[in-house]
Design brief:
The complex is a heterodimer of chains A (148) and B (581). In chain A, strand 7 and strand 8 form a beta hairpin. In chain A, the strands form 2 sheets. Chain A has a 5-stranded mixed β-sheet. Helices cover 19% and strands 32% of the residues of chain A. Chain A is globular. Chain A is an alpha+beta fold and 148 residues long. Chain A has a single domain, classed as Sandwich (Immunoglobulin-like), CATH 2.60.40.2470. Chain B is of the alpha/beta class and 581 residues long. Chain B has 2 domains: 277 residues, Purple Acid Phosphatase, chain A, domain 2 (4-Layer Sandwich), CATH 3.60.21; 183 residues, 5'-Nucleotidase, C-terminal domain (5'-nucleotidase,  domain 2). Helices cover 30% and strands 21% of the residues of chain B. The two termini of chain B are 14 Å apart. Classes of the chains: A alpha+beta (148), B alpha/beta (581). Chains A and B meet through helix 1 of A and helix 10, helix 11 and helix 18 of B.
Chain lengths: 148, 581
């Protein structure tokens, strides 16, 4: 049976309700989540692995956030051998917003929401065994009003 | 410019237009002015941002429309003589339509523009000449007048049906309640399309009404229309920042955005699956966003744009990795009709012609049925609309990056009636113009203010907060990347002076903030500020139109020769500024 978007969303919700994930499954260490600048996150997550910008990482965000409290973000890629996908919001007090460990069979295509206090560079980091691939976007968080 | 220089320009212009002299200026007929032989196989007519102006009005184009970065000195950021310099020919009527130059004298000479009964006559003629045409409306049609507000947009839906609009998209259409917008879209006889309006995931989960359960699109993203056996895809692009620039509370279930990647995928899908002859984007992005979009997305033949109210007489050709896209913008307030004739050859589009016709009411016989409909819409409200409030001794207008004279009336009214030191008024681009000596009626005040969140507020703000507001709005106007602009003009201020450096970075553009008496604004001190059109929770005060009307009734006459404009820095010689003081 083909699921439409509404049915799929309901299915996902049920799944999440059934399986509260234990914290040891998170990809990053607590230290990375507590780091206060992007460089420290890089060091903690990737050590000395080279980081390069790549068109193969598809990062989708709004250009201007409709609501900074819930900014929708999607990251997908066709790079082989993805070990983890992480999202860094440079200007957030703790820049590492999310990090997902992927099993070898997992499709590297994830969507989630992040909180943003102000306009920032947002980085999607796709880690493989020998390299980290990165895509960046600028997301503006602004006061509303005054539209023409 | 003095009157002699003005006549000199008219004279030169009349020569380039092939007329024999100024004595013929007023005698030109509809047949002469609107003659446009069809070139090609399919004619598309485009109106946008009419802002519910059912009757002819005056609308002054800006003398300040600054382009920065890559937009400097290019359409739409050319004003006055700099704009004329781009045209190979322009009749005096064209000069009046496209520029602010000697607005009052020209307006008296050439009369009002727009009006739906006059539009109807012109559109029917342009369509008949081509043996049928497609009529596209870029949105901002169902808001902007008293009757549109009081009928919740319904009067304009019916007017559009009578005009024969085939396809439309929206922006202010979404400032009624979402249920009302859906109801209006159903009552609209054409197709209301928007590829970039989807239900949020929460709303989908809760069972909100959508057009497509799979994609979450609230409206059809596109429609295919057949014209002279040619299949033309019309994709809708609603204003991407509606939930930010306007209250999200009216449309809590919907999410917008430019959605460039979705659009690229949709165009590719249409190209591969739908056997189309042309792809048109009916856009409410604003022209700068459209120009960038055209450079990024492959496969769109024409972007017919609105939102930024740029009456751009020439189409702009944009290169991208897959070919070229033609971008236009058709102004506002019913002042223009864009005419696009597309020519098809053996392998697709082989040529086109584009003309932006100003709609001069005195050249067009109003359509009797449409006029009767307009009269019937207005009849129940006529006493209120026509109430005389004051006489203006100076030209009143709004449009321009910084404060127009009508904005100054609004700012003065708030400070006076609401008894505050400072006032703030949004930089909307709609709002008609009133000539010196004319009566300001309630209708003209409603032209500037009519919307679903008109409530005023009075509250204390620190100097720091005021600067933050000015900086934020200024970045929405002058961010060098158009995708981060929202398409409005700068917030208008009363009781406050400042300097503005458009080329500076976010947070560094506004400086030298002072009160009217020259006292520097203190970042930590709190000031009493009045404003209106707040997009957060509903404000508690009286609607702005009542505040302005009270002020005008008491004043009886107004005379404002300039807005409270900032001192500009770093934009000397910019072709988007003329006659600025």
């Amino acid at each position: 049976m083909e699921l439409n978007r509404r049915q799929w969303l309901r299915g996902i919700f049920a799944l999440c309700g059934a399986a509260m994930l234990p914290s040891r499954l998170f990809a990053a260490t607590p230290a990375a989540f507590k780091a206060t600048d992007a460089k420290a996150v890089f060091q903690d997550l990737f050590g000395d692995l080279p980081i390069e910008e790549s068109d193969a990482v598809n990062l989708r965000t709004p250009d201007i956030a409709e609501n900074g409290a819930v900014v929708p973000v999607s990251v997908s890629t066709d790079i082989a051998g993805v070990e983890s996908i992480s999202l860094i919001v440079d200007e957030n007090p703790n820049p590492l917003s999310a990090s997902f460990n992927l099993t070898p069979d997992a499709v590297p295509d994830i969507s989630f929401r992040v909180k943003m206090g102000k306009s920032s560079t947002v980085r999607a980091m796709v880690k493989t065994s020998d390299k980290v691939y990165m895509a960046t976007r600028e997301v503006k968080v602004t006061i509303g009003g005054c539209g023409g | 410019m003095n009157r002699r220089e003005f006549l000199d320009i008219l004279w030169k212009a009349s020569l380039t237009a092939g007329l024999t002299g100024c004595d013929r200026l007023q005698n030109i007929s509809e047949a002469d002015y609107y003659a446009l032989p069809v070139q090609g196989d399919a004619r598309i007519l485009h109106i946008t941002d009419t802002h519910a102006q059912l009757l002819p009005i005056h609308f002054r184009e800006p003398n300040v429309n600054i382009g920065i970065g890559g937009a400097r000195g290019r359409f739409p950021h050319l004003v006055g003589k700099n704009l004329l310099a781009e045209l190979s020919a322009a009749s005096p009527r064209d000069i009046h339509a496209y520029t602010y130059l000697d607005f009052t004298e020209s307006a008296e000479l050439f009369g009002k523009v727009g009006g739906f009964a006059h539009l109807k006559t012109l559109l029917d003629r342009l369509s008949a000449e081509a043996g049928g045409a497609l009529l596209l409306d870029g949105g901002d049609t169902w808001q902007g007048s008293g009757t549109a507000l009081w009928t919740r947009g319904r009067d304009m839906v019916e007017a559009c049906n009578r005009l024969g609009v085939d396809v439309m998209t929206g922006h202010w259409e979404f400032t009624y309640k979402d249920s009302e917008t859906l109801e209006n879209a159903k009552k609209f006889n054409g197709d209301f399309v928007a590829q970039n309006v989807k239900a949020t995931e929460d709303a989908l989960f809760d069972g909100t009404e959508v057009y497509d359960e799979d994609s979450g699109h609230v409206f059809p993203p596109y429609v295919i229309k057949t014209l002279n056996n040619r299949r033309i895809a019309v994709i809708g692009q609603a204003f991407p920042y509606t939930p930010i620039a306007n209250p999200r509370r009216f449309i809590p279930d919907w999410t917008f955005g430019i959605q460039e990647q979705d659009l690229a995928e949709l165009v590719a899908h249409i190209r591969s699956e739908d056997q189309v002859d042309a792809v048109v984007l009916l856009s409410h992005n604003g022209m700068d966003v459209d120009l960038k979009l055209a450079s990024q997305v492959v496969g769109i033949d024409f972007i017919l744009g609105g939102h930024t109210h740029d009456g751009v007489p020439l189409p702009v050709l944009v290169d991208n990795s897959g070919g070229k896209t033609v971008v236009t913008n058709a102004g506002s307030n019913g002042k223009y009709v864009g005419v696009l004739d597309i020519e098809f050859g053996a392998s697709g589009i082989s040529g086109y012609q584009y003309r932006l016709f100003p709609v001069f009411a005195n050249l067009l016989k109003p359509d009797a049925d449409m006029q009767a409909y307009i009269d019937s819409v207005r009849a129940p409200y006529l006493d209120k609309l026509t109430e005389p409030l004051a006489i203006t001794e100076s030209l009143l207008y709004r449009r321009g990056n910084f404060s127009g004279t009508f904005d100054q009336v609004i700012c003065d009214a708030m400070r006076n009636v609401l008894d505050t030191e400072i006032s703030l008024s949004p930089g909307f681009r709609w709002g008609t113009s009133v000539l010196p000596g004319e009566t300001i009626t309630m209708e003209r005040v409603l032209d500037q203010t009519c919307m679903t969140y008109p409530e005023t507020y009075v509250r204390e703000m620190s100097g720091e907060e005021l600067k933050f507001i000015l900086e934020s709005v200024c970045d929405n106007l002058f961010n060098p990347d158009p995708y981060y602009q929202q398409g409005g003009d700068m917030v208008r201020v009363g009781g406050l002076r400042f300097s503005c450096a458009p080329n500076a970075a976010m947070g560094k553009r506004i400086d030298n903030l002072q009160l009217n008496d020259g006292t520097p604004l203190d970042a930590s001190k709190r000031y009493k500020v009045a404003g209106w059109a707040t997009v957060a929770a509903q404000a508690p005060g009286a609607p702005i139109w009542d505040v302005v009307a009270d002020y005008l009734r008491a004043e009886k006459t107004v005379n404002i020769t300039r807005g409270n404009n900032p001192v500009l820095k770093g934009v000397e010689g910019n072709p988007g500024i003329e006659d600025y003081s």
